[in-house]
Amino acid sequence: PSVWGRGLLHPRAPSPPLLWVQLPAQLSSSGSGAAMVCRICRGSAAGKGQRSTALSSPPAPTWEHSVPTQICYGKLPHFSAALSLGLNLKSVISAAIGADEAVGCEGTQLSGSSLCTRTFGYNTVDVVPAYEHYANSRGVGEARRGRPSLADLHSILKVRPWCKGCCNGLPDTEEGAGEPSSAPAPEPVRFGWVKGVMVSIRCMLNIWGVILYLRLPWITAQAGIALTWLIILMSVTVTTITGLSISAISTNGKVKSGGTYFLISRSLGPELGGSIGLIFAFANAVAVAMHTVGFAETVRDLLQEHNSLIVDPTNDIRIIGVLTVTVLLGISLAGMEWEAKAQILFFLVILVSFINYLVGTVIPASAEKQAKGFFSYRADIFAQNFVPDWRGPEGSFFGLFSIFFPSATGILAGANISGDLKDPAVAIPKGTLMAIFWTTVSYLVLSATIGACVLRDASGSLNDSVAVGSPGCEGLGCSYGWNFTDCAQRQSCRYGLSNYYQVMSMVSGFGPLITAGIFGATLSSALACLVSAPKVFQCLCKDQLYPLIGFFGKGYGKNSEPIRGYMLTYVIAIGFILIAELNAIAPIISNFFLCSYALINFSCFHASITNSPGWRPSFRYYSKWAALFGATISVVIMFLLTWWAALIALGIVVFLLGYVLYKKPDVNWGSSMQASSYNLALSYSVGLSEVDEHIKNYRPQCLVLTGPPNFRPALVDFVGTFTKNLSLMICGNVLIGPRKQKVPEARQASDGHTRWLLKRKIKAFYTNVLAEDLRSGVQMLLQAAGLGKMRPNIVALGYKRDWQAAAPQSLEDYVGILHDAFDFKHGVCLLRLREGLNVSRVPQAHSKCCRHAVVGTVLLIGNVQCGKKMVLFAAVTVVLRGGAVLMSAFPFAADPEQQASTIFQSQQGKKTIDIYWLFDDGGLTLLIPYLLGRKKRWGKCKIRVFVGGQINRMDEERKAIVSLLSKFRLGFHEVHVVPDINQQPRPEHIRRFDELIAPFRLNDGFKDEAAVNELRHGCPWKISDEEVHRHRAKSLRQVRLNEILLDYSRDAALIAITLPIGRKGRCPSSLYMAWLETLSQDLRPPVILIRGNQENVLTFYCQ
């Protein structure tokens, strides 16, 4: 019933230790005892840290024959003691022999595990759906849970190594018996939608401000009740649309701290999100100063009325402002709970002051108030104030709109503390929209009531009372017994809606309560901004989009309070408070807020228009077209308010946007910009399929057979140079070997190779295929690589240096790849460097270590600054099965092979690019060097064209080629005719060629045809005497061309020459490689052998 084995520690065991378990022979598939390796993942408190008896060496079964398995025993007591006595392996056998599911949990060692609670009650690797499987974050002290991978379910069950708290290699949450549990982290303070967003800590208090008390009655007098309502409703339209957009974005996923910056950056991406986050945090910091200065001005006015100035009017604002912002900082540092309590107090003060005003409007007016223009509710006063009466330089609709609009810009205050809300997805929409509704009602009510009670002009003098109907009295006041005609005509009235800013205080039942309301409005707005700015800035710092700001991102306490951010905001606020001029700092702040509104609305519109499956906001009451309208009108309002401030704000956004675009931060937030890029790419790719090809639009689209791209960096650099920003480049890699072994390697290596290309600034794709041999894999790539019209038309590969010593079949495959490329109508570019292309020299120490367990290797090569010298370093990463990684770095000596890996990344200087256009291939031999010459690194090189000709017709042939090249408009003016191509090469060079092909000859001169065919059947790469004779002229031509290249192009930067073609089935692979070897040998410059597909890639026609 139970199976027992002996457990012992492996001598090289890591921590937690590996256990070697010897299984009895009857359980081994081979009949002999098999070893199993398991990891201690959990034990009892008593057994923790104890070790069973360790032996000096593992048992007979070696490391190579072990079966890696990870075992968790749940609540098994005295685990170490059990190991020393013997190990019950019943629950492990299924994993050891590859069965990943059992019939039930009962009766197994897993019955005490929480694995069973994650299923339907039986022991299976599959788990039921759970929140933890989709969350990418977890709380402090919370164990991570995850679903099994596809390989866990589909393939033989493998263990996830180095996993603590796991069961059967899968994450588990239940702690072992007796294991001490860490103390739970204290819960941070969180707020609901009322306390957190609508009422006390944010939107209503930030929307209500000085405008409500000091400017709204004056705006009503200027614009009339009707147009004032229009101004309010226009402003509210913008803020409501923005509120709907905020609601949609905030309900499309889990919202964290960072507020407006978080919403925009995660929706539009780091480029726009980072720029608006920085200026929005700065605008909030300056807004602290603006609201504090407004408070200080009111206090200064009270001191002036009582002749109690501290120093002088300007310095009093500075003194009061600094003291006030210091007190507000203390409230903020005390924690969000104290800040919320302070905001509740301010809200109650404002509410009482507003009720005090409404009560005052229904109290019968005293003579003193009547002298100042207040007569309680009167229909004729309402009718007179219903129409506009423009006065002064601000007397225009948009002038008054620009004054009022900043009072509606506080709707983001709740979103800015999204990290301190219990459920931001519920709190932000509900609280923000309710705040907009109630503040709008308050503005409309105040405008209507004040316009129905107070005249536009009043003298304030009790001596102006007259009898009703007195002659010479003009105006509405005459019907109430007051003559304000003189001051109205001379525009010297001190009171009335048009002249007295403190009219609300005069109308109210108790004036000091209105002053208290002004204090509450200014201080609450200042406090809200003082909290918002560090919260937004902290999130920005943590994302590390900009340099030198990470210092301010550190959080303290259970709420991760950004104390350093508070101090920075405090310093900025004091700097602007010292200006002591409210009108100097207000305009640009409003424009920064409007920038945020525009981007929030655009974020909502852009996310909707891209039709991304990830855009699924639970808030449905929004419209993408309304969001676009809100974005547009926000930009328009920016310029209507203050055009120069709008230009400054947009200039800063563009500058910060450009910086992030240049730096390309390594973040991936699934933004709508990514979705839009996909939509555009898909649309254009499909549209491109409908366009007929034309020679004028030909682009060299290359399939580069690099293997791992970092193994052949020079080949990647060369092709990347002429395809960058021009055409398609795909780096192809053929993985040869067992599919079961290579699938994980392909998956792990693909992302790494793509990152390597990006880091090397190569604009290319990487793709790999699994195949039984190289040639079949390349055939797959030739047929399947690309998409639609964006498919390779050129195959680029490196020259096979070791063809003479290589296996004959690999030689056949290499030449066969060239034939396959021509069969699929591809051009061919073959690059040869004297030093070679392959730099994949992995140290022997790594190749010998655990060779059975190596999944793959990655070799990174680059220059490292050491003092004043650049030293070439290599970093080798060896990936073992199970995820273990071995890494090492070492310097290379001044090795020519390694130096050649960066040859195409350096300036080429004033050398030459020599083109040997010997045969007409459609123009590809000319086009690729021309594209190279357009690049900066090759710009100083002079291009020379060499063509073959006859000695008695050199001038005519040169003129013909020059005329043809001028029609192609390539700018090649130096043309040389080589007349001696067909001359006999030097004897020593002919002898060297004969020695080169000698090992590959059949030497069949005295054999009959049947014997020759039998030899050729087994060795198709061999060269018969008849083939040597038949291709003798072509062979000698390659020898002669090499002599010409050595004479003319010894010091060139690059040699481009037409690739000779060997006829398929008629030219043995070894002979063809001998041609290429002879043609390009002993040349110091890089040699690129090019052959088009014999179709035109150049034209001199316009259509």
From TrEMBL:
Predominant localisation class: membrane
SLC12A transporter C-terminal domain ranges (all copies): 712-846, 899-1102
Biological function: Electroneutral sodium and chloride ion cotransporter, which acts as a key mediator of sodium and chloride reabsorption in kidney distal convoluted tubules. Also acts as a receptor for the pro-inflammatory cytokine IL18, thereby contributing to IL18-induced cytokine production, including IFNG, IL6, IL18 and CCL2. May act either independently of IL18R1, or in a complex with IL18R1.
Recorded family membership: Belongs to the SLC12A transporter family.
Full protein name: Solute carrier family 12 member 3
Transmembrane segments: 191-214, 226-252, 272-296, 317-336, 342-363, 397-415, 435-455, 563-582, 588-609, 643-662, 870-893, 913-932
GO CC, any one term: apical plasma membrane
Gene3D superfamilies: Amino acid/polyamine transporter I
GO molecular function, one term: sodium:potassium:chloride symporter activity
Domain Amino acid permease/ SLC12A, chain residue ranges per copy: 199-703
Any GO BP: potassium ion homeostasis
Catalytic activity line of the entry: chloride(out) + Na(+)(out) = chloride(in) + Na(+)(in)
Subcellular location as annotated: Apical cell membrane
Stretches assigned to the Amino acid permease N-terminal domain: 113-158
Membrane topology, as annotated: Multi-pass membrane protein
Assembly and binders: Homodimer; adopts a domain-swap conformation at the scissor helices connecting the transmembrane domain and C-terminal domain. Interacts with KLHL3. Interacts with IL18R1; this interaction is increased by IL18 treatment.
Keywords, in A-Z order: ATP-binding, Cell membrane, Chloride, Disulfide bond, Glycoprotein, Ion transport, Membrane, Nucleotide-binding, Phosphoprotein, Sodium, Sodium transport, Symport, Transmembrane, Transmembrane helix, Transport, Ubl conjugation
